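Example S7 (structure tokens).
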């Protein structure tokens, strides 16, 4: 019997998740498909109805994107300790009509970093204090990095530092701290934020980035953000947002198909082919 998977969010039309997952499903000859589940945020019943139907229908699981990553926690029968610690999920597995929540955004970010660097003992800076910052700072700390955080609104940043037992740093001190890793989790430099503010910029510039640093931006629209540009100018190693996107999808696939090994190269080729033919990404 065909098992359906998909992405729950709003909007989902430009998501690249179907491209990666359907390529993997086809490559392995699995009896499954991956669809778009656009859930109207204006309809208070829509999410509850969807999760209820999931128990009944042949849905094996789903990805969760904006704006449901936090609220979806309430609809789970169980969640993985990492999702619980982060307070958000991006992956749901339907196991015998019980919904289990996971967070592969965090592990995907780690996998993207690990392509370029080891993590234990590294001095890492997280820019931002939203959900993505919480997830990435948490897994970096768990991986043995020494984690610092800067955020535009200091009170929010300090609160997150306290919750995670990591260090706050002032913007002016970032350069002299000579970080090994810097990760931007804010929308600064994204098409959406640039359109809103009328300008495109980076929170930190090349002078504050050590040449030995590994720098990652999780923004995917565009991939070449001003922050990535500054990192390259500094001579640092730059990791663009599609690497995390790929690795979070690999993590999802392996949760949904625990007996199949994700065909990483097939998923990667599908992602880059889609990226080269579109400017939209999720
Ligand atoms: P998510 O949950 O997706 O990570 P979020 O909760 O909206 O996103 O968090 C966005 C983060 O980016 C916040 O830390 C925000 O800073 P504030 O706490 O000061 O709002 C940061 N951010 C958003 N726009 C920014 C901007 N123009 N300059 C600097 N930081 C910005």
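Recovered sequence:
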């Amino acid at each position: 019997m065909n098992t359906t998977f998909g992405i729950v969010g709003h909007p989902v039309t430009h998501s690249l998740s179907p491209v990666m997952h359907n390529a993997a499903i086809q490559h392995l000859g699995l009896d499954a498909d991956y669809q778009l589940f656009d859930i109207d945020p204006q309809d208070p019943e829509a999410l509850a109805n969807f999760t209820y139907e999931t128990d009944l229908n042949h849905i094996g699981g789903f990805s969760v994107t904006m704006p449901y990553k936090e609220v979806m926690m309430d609809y789970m029968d169980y969640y993985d300790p990492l999702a619980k610690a982060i307070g958000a999920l991006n992956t749901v597995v339907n196991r015998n009509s019980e919904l289990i929540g996971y967070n592969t955004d965090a592990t995907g970010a780690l996998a993207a970093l690990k392509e370029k660097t080891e993590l234990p003992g590294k001095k890492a800076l997280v820019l931002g204090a939203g959900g993505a910052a919480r997830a990435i700072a948490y897994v970096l700390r768990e991986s043995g990095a020494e984690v610092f955080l800067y955020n535009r609104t200091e009170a929010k940043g300090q609160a997150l530092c306290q919750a995670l037992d990591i260090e706050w740093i002032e913007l002016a001190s970032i350069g002299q701290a000579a970080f090994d890793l810097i990760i931007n989790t804010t929308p600064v430099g994204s098409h959406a934020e640039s359109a809103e503010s009328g300008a495109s910029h980076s929170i930190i510039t090349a002078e504050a980035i050590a040449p030995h640093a590994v720098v990652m931006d999780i923004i995917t629209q565009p991939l070449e953000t001003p922050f990535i540009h500054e990192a390259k100018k500094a001579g640092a190693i730059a990791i663009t947002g599609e690497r995390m996107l790929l690795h979070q999808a690999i993590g999802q696939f392996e949760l949904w198909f625990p007996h199949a090994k994700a065909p990483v190269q097939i998923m990667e080729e599908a992602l880059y082919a889609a990226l080269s033919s579109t400017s939209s990404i999720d």
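Notes on this example. The longest strand covers residues 3-9.
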